[in-house]
Amino acid sequence: HRRVTKFARFISWIGHPLVFVAASVAVVVGTQLGLHAGFPILLALLLSTLVPTAILLLSGLRSGQWSDADVSVRKERQRFFPWAVPFSLAGVVVMYLIHAPAYIIRGGMITLALFLTSWIVNCFLKLSLHALFAFYCAVILFRIGAGWGTIAFFLAMLVAWSRLFLHRHTPVELIAGIALGLIGGFITAWL
Fold first, then answer.
1. DSSP string covering 129-144
2. What is the 3-state secondary structure (H, E, C) of 58-95?
3. Is 56 helix (H, G, I), strand (E, B) or coil?
4. In the predicted model, is pLDDT for residue 66 greater than 90?
5. Long-range contact pairs involving 143-151 (C-beta distance under 8 Å, separation at least 24)
6. Is 105 exposed, middle or buried (CB count within 10 Å of its CB: 0-12, 13-18, 19+)?
7. How far apart are CA 48 and CA 43, in angstroms?
8. Rounded mean pLDDT of 71-75?
9. What are φ and ψ of residue 138, in 5° steps?
10. Is 113 exposed, middle or buried (0-12, 13-18, 19+ CB in 10 A)?
11. Averaged pLDDT for residues 154-171
């Protein structure tokens, strides 16, 4: 049982939205733009969105604002979203200013919409942001290629299992996150 718990924690860490999204964006940018054209976009996203969010999570954890780096307590998320949403908006604005391809800006806008929706839903239900962003990225990566999508979907399924196994979410919270992620991914990649 200890090994399974360790494995579930490892998968949950891989499935942390910051990790899963950063890796997925790197795949999209790397496969679609190449290193030379894609590196400035990745760097801009890291500096405008991902690093500030990571600093927010770590400082909130250290200060006791939330009990873990996942911000797993629903009431604690009400202090997280007012920061996460502007960071997501900053990423969209920076992508626009550096003339990133339209599909990158579109993905940023849908990500922002997913954060806003999650914030509203959080008033009633603590949906799984891990599952949301894992399935969101998996759908987008299917658009890039079946191999990437299959790998991401398999990892997303493991992330969903880990969140249930570790008792971070109820089945309803998990299903809500998965559904929102699938819808967001479909809108981003296929419409």
1. HHHHHHHHHHHHHHHH
2. HHHHHHCCCCCCCCCCHHHHHHHHHHHHHHHHHHHHHH
3. helix
4. no
5. 143/189, 143/190, 144/27, 144/28, 144/31, 144/32, 145/31, 148/27, 148/31
6. middle
7. 8
8. 88
9. -60, -45
10. middle
11. 97
H/E run at residue 103: helix 102-121
Query: Residue 73 — pLDDT band, cuts 50, 70, 90?
Result: confident
Radius of gyration of the chain from its Cα atoms, rounded to whole angstroms:
16
∠ CA 69-136-54, nearest 5°, is: 25
- Report the pLDDT value the prediction gives residue 72, as an integer from 0 to 100: 85
Q: What mean pLDDT do residues 148-175 have? A: 97
The residues near 159 (Cβ < 8 Å, ≥ 6 apart) are 11, 12, 14, 15, 20, 130, 131, 134
User: Kindly report the CA angle at 81 between 124 and 96, in degrees rounded to 5?
Assistant: 130
Q: For residue 128, give Cα distances in angstroms to 115, 132, 147.
A: 12, 6, 25
Q: How far is CA 147 from CA 29, 82, 95, 142, 184, in A?
A: 16, 36, 27, 7, 20
Task: pLDDT band for 44, please (50, 70, 90 cuts).
Answer: very high
Provide the terminal-to-terminal Cα distance of the chain, rounded to the nearest Å.
43
Indicate the angle between helix axes 17-45 and 74-97, nearest 10 degrees. Answer: 30
Q: Which two tokens stand for residue 110?
A: 């849908």
